[in-house]
Amino acid sequence: MAQSRRVERVAALIRREVSELLMSGIKDERVHHGMVSVTNVEVAGDLQHCRIFVSIFGSAEDREVAMAGLQAASAYVKGELGRRLKMRRTPEVVFVLDRGLEKGNTVLGLLQRLETERRGREEPLAEAGEADAAGDRGIDSDADS
Q1: Nearest to 36 by CA among 50, 48, 24, 45
Q2: Per-residue pLDDT tens over the stretch 94-119
Q3: For the chain, what is the mean pLDDT?
Q4: Residues 6+ apart with CB under 8 A from 81
């Protein structure tokens, strides 16, 4: 159990450091084509391999360009992690595109569209219900004039 806590701690440290590197350390312009954020980090139990999941907000072309920049910068990121974390062996770094946030935004958009359609269908029914209620109370709209 202590081993897994150590792996989790290392993953959290890597996530923090890579997030900092994305903001100010990586000079490759391709990385800054889309809004890149680290969503998760998975570290192998032997601390030799690390998968960094990133979400890239932007067009499909921006995602491809940013991923190419991240993959090109993986050696730099590994070196910086080695310097900053002072580990005996720095894990190999692999960037993986995480589409979870993109899928979540799609689902939220669909839910919002369904809500708008539902409200659009309820409004004519509510207006018809008000007219029926006015007729039931004996209110004559022509008598007021």
Answers
A1: 24
A2: 999 988 777 787 888 888 988 888 88
A3: 82
A4: 14, 17, 18, 87, 90, 91, 93
Beta bridge partners of 143: none
- Enter the DSSP assignment of 28: -
Task: Work out the angle at residue 143's Cα, subtended by the Cα atoms of residues 139 and 145, and round it to the nearest 5 degrees.
Answer: 130
Q: Enumerate residues 6+ apart whose C-beta is below 8 A from 35.
A: 56, 57, 58
Task: Determine the Cα–Cα distance for residues 37 and 21; give it in Å rounded to an integer.
Answer: 11
Contact between 2 and 40 under an 8 Å Cβ cutoff? The reply is no
How far apart are the C-alpha atoms of 129 and 116, rounded to whole Å? 20
Burial class (CB in 10 A: 0-12, 13-18, 19+), 52: buried
